[in-house]
Amino acid sequence: MKYTGAQILIEALIREGADTIFGYPGGVLLPIFDVLYDAKINFILVRHEQGAAHAADGYSRSTNRVGVCMATSGPGATNLITGIATAYMDSIPMVVITGQVPTTMIGNDAFQEADIIGITRPIVKHSYLLKNVADISRVVKEAFWIANTGRPGPVLIDIPKDISTAVMTNPKYPQKVDIRSYNPTCLGHPMQIKKAVSAIASSKKPVIYSGGGIMSSNAAEELQKFVDITGIPVTSTLLGLGGFPGTDPLFLGMLGMHGTKYANYAISNADLVIAIGARFDDRVTGKIDEFAPAATIIHIDIDPSSISKNVLVHIPIVGDAKHILQQMNKEATPPKINEWIEQIEQWKKDCPLGYKKGGKLKPQFVIEKIYEVTGGNAIITTEVGQNQMWAAQYYKFDYPKSFLSSGGLGTMGYGFPAAIGAQVANPDMVVFDIAGDGSFQMNIQELATAIQYNLPVNVAILNNHNLGMVRQWQELFFNKRYSYTSMAVQPDFVKVAEAYGAEGIRVETEADVVPALKRAIISKKPVVLDFWVEEEENVFPMVPAGASLTQMLEGMA
Amino acid sequence: MRHTISVLVENRFGVLARVAGLFSGRGYNIDSLCVGETDDPTISRMTIVTNGDNRIIEQIEKQLNKLIDVIKVMDVTKEDHVKRELVLIKVAADEGQRARVIEIVEIFRGKIIDVSPKTMTVEITGDEGKINGITEMLKPFGIKELVRTGKVAVVRGEK
Ligand SMILES: Cc1ncc(C[n+]2csc(CCOP(=O)(O)OP(=O)(O)O)c2C)c(N)n1
Q1: A-chain residues within 8 Å CB-CB of B70?
Q2: Which residue has the least CA distance to atom 17 on ligand 1?
Q3: Both A370 and A509 in a single domain?
Q4: Atom of ligand 1 nearest to the CA of A384
Q5: Does the C-beta of A466 come closer than 6 Å to ligand 1?
Q6: Which residues of B touch A126 (CB under 8 A)?
Q7: pTM assigned to the model
Q8: Nearest-CA residue of chain A relative to B43?
Q9: Distance from the CA of A470 to the center of ligand 1, in angstroms?
Q10: What integer is the mean pLDDT of A18-41?
Q11: Which residues in chain B land under pLDDT 50?
Q12: Where does a domain end: A350, A376, A411?
């Protein structure tokens, strides 16, 4: 039988388990779209390619599968870039397919030609320009493998139009991947495990600092067991939320710039830090020289280049967090840390997370209610800014892959399309995008996508009529000179929602919060909740950029 | 400190761009770079001379290893190794000066590979000391052009 490149591509995607493609058509993709017309794969037509990339990312983050997005050459491909960079920074697996002008025209500044391989080189784990129809099936197989093993990340496949129309007889679909130059380490070195276990046994003030790697390696169960054995308290990065139950008494909340005081005190006073799948980002460490100054540092990470990049690590263990925790759980013994736990309990009592009640509706209150109404059984995505930090602080994430947020790149406009991707992958889950009024407007057009595919995602806009997080920095560090952070003109979000065929509800009082949330959850349509909150509310505690974690600004006083 | 890093890569389109992009994107310097096929035509070797403290060099090695097309990375500076570079120098020399140039080239065991009424072109192979030595000696005549291949290196013995 004869098959075109386009047919082989789609067949290869299906064989890799892809059930959905998020994308947008264009000239050079026409042969592929013709195959998609009656292929056994869902296609979600977004309204902007950036939405496709974030939706594929949300699909990946909320599952163990690899999200797929597709865009045409030139502007379609360049529109994906923010989404690819977002996935890259957070180590999210994704396969990105871009159309390209025919091979004979590459380099000629052809219509809608962009060197997307060149443009995306620093923000992909790997990329392929297909030059031969016989390579398609192997390249697709490799792309999924590379994207979802080792330190995961996006892989781009650029397919010129003449390759998708080229014909070949009896294409072979390889069963296995064989890349001689790519063999990620999985198991931890036994000697290093021994060292770590003995450091743990003799520690007096240990803390676990866990990150997104817990999600990437599906290690939440192993982490729970490790904590059950050792009794060591856990703090988490933004991306690590959900990797250890937010309601567990040994959970200290997030650390870092907007971490809890007790998490930051704990890490600053620790004699042993066990970093698992986290990369010592500057938003986490604060002033690097003063990060965990007295601690021995164990660092478990799949990526050797993360180790000792920012902070000198004493006991590195390269490998997959799940495997390494399994290895450690066989040998670990509990350290004697009663006094340390008492100290932490005292910090928790003395400086709990909190906000001033009274006055206008408080954004933190809204998040607390979203948690109560969903019982924590929901997928929460966020935009970027104050909304994101309040979500991280006030919602208790008990389940892995239930919190999707752009950490490394901090991409406004991420949350809503990511929510769409998560809803596609988890049709029965309640999905909320916790949004800011600024961020939501960056991909608000995807309301049409949600309507078209009957995706009942909910958007909770914490509407402070400002680019709140930037306004906060201006208030605190720039003498309240509010330079271009007030969104003086804003659409009526309720009407916008209705115009798209979604539901819109404005909420201005505490009493209306829960009924509105309940309405959103039972509604079969997307619901945009426009919470008009206190405009000048700030996120606290806050470690100013570049300060030590112990120098936290307060809001409560 | 200066390090010579030897990198085996898949002999494929775009690999050089990935390696070069890694250096520029992370702010590392490339002092010299030399690429060529190995005895196995599917594999190329890049010899990169770079600068940095131990931490930077360690990062460079790890980052290179992360590239999918990179097969092996070795910091030959850490091993007993020999380094060579080939340099072509076009030097101003008329009839009156030719003999003196030839004398210098012979001392450095170089070769004259081209002569014109006003210039001579010298080929010289060696390590950094030798190359610097001959260029110093030829400078007074007037160096018109100097072309270097960049360094290649190999570890001594069986390794
Ligand atoms: C695409 C993009 N542009 C700019 C920024 C810088 N930035 C970070 S937070 C923020 C304000 C976000 O405002 P909003 O979405 O209303 O959320 P709030 O902070 O008010 O909750 C801005 C502009 C960013 N993170 N992403």
Answers
A1: 181
A2: A436
A3: yes
A4: 9
A5: yes
A6: 68
A7: 0.95
A8: A181
A9: 7
A10: 98
A11: none
A12: A350
Enzyme catalytic residues of A: 49, 111-112, 161, 469
Best mutation target among A121, A125, A179, A288 (most B Cβ atoms within 10 Å) is A121
3-state secondary structure of A216: helix
Q: Which of B10, B25, B55 sits opposite A181 (nearest CB)?
A: B10
* A539 within some domain: no
Is the same domain home to A452 and A511?
yes
Shortest Cα distance from B158 to chain A (angstroms)?
A: 23
Does residue B79 contact residue B67 with C-beta atoms inside 8 Å? no
Residues A446 and A521 in one domain: yes
Asked whether the beta carbons of residue A305 and residue B69 sit closer than 8 angstroms, the reply is no
- CATH code where residue A247 lies: 3.40.50.1220
| Total domains in the fold of chain A | 3
CA distance A393 to chain B (A): 33
Q: Cβ of A308 and B71 within 8 Å? A: no
**Domain range enclosing A50:** 2-169
Q: With 90 as the cut, is the pLDDT of residue A251 above it?
A: yes
Is A305 in CB contact (< 8 Å) with chain B?
yes
Is the domain of A318 the same as that of A396?
Answer: no
The pLDDT tens digits of the residues spanning A388-406 come to: 999 999 999 999 999 999 9
Residues A165, A196: one domain? Answer: no
Look at residue A184 and tell me if it is in a domain: no
Which DSSP string do the residues of A64-111 spell out, in sequence order? SSPEEEEE-TTHHHHHTHHHHHHHHHTT--EEEEEEE--GGGTTS--T
Is the CB of A121 less than 8 angstroms away from the CB of B17?
Answer: yes
Query: Which CATH number fits the domain that encloses residue A153?
Result: 3.40.50.970
pLDDT above 50 (res A425): yes
Which tens digits make up the pLDDT trace of A207-216? 999 999 999 9
pLDDT tens for B31-49 read 999 999 999 999 999 999 9
For A128-186, the DSSP string reads: EE---GGGHHHHHHHHHHHHHSSS--EEEEEEEHHHHH-EEES----SS---TT-----
pLDDT tens-digit profile of A139-176? 999 999 999 999 999 999 999 999 999 999 999 999 99
pLDDT band at A555 (very low <50, low <70, confident <90, very high): low
Cβ count within 10 A of residue A290? 14
Q: Is A39 within a domain? A: yes
Q: Are A210 and A335 part of one and the same domain?
A: yes
pLDDT tier, A557 (very low <50, low <70, confident <90, very high otherwise): very low
Does an H or E element contain B91, and which?
A: strand B81-92
In this predicted model, what pLDDT tens digit does every residue of A171-210 receive, in sequence order?
Answer: 999 999 999 999 988 899 999 999 999 999 999 999 999 9
Residue A324's contacts (CB-CB under 8 Å, 6 or more residues apart) are A187, A188, A193, A300, A317
User: B69 in contact with A at a CB cutoff of 8 Å?
Assistant: yes
Q: Is A384 in the pocket of ligand 1 (CB under 6 A)?
A: yes
| Residue A545 belongs to a domain | no
Choice from A362, A442, A467 to test ligand 1 binding pocket (greatest atom count within 8 A of CB): A467
Are A390 and A319 contained in the same domain?
A: no
Does residue A230 sit in the same domain as residue A164? no
Name the token pair of A416: 């809503």
The SS3 of residue A3 is strand
How many residues are listed for chain B in this entry?
159
CB-based contact B59 A129, cutoff 8 Å: no
pLDDT at B1: 87
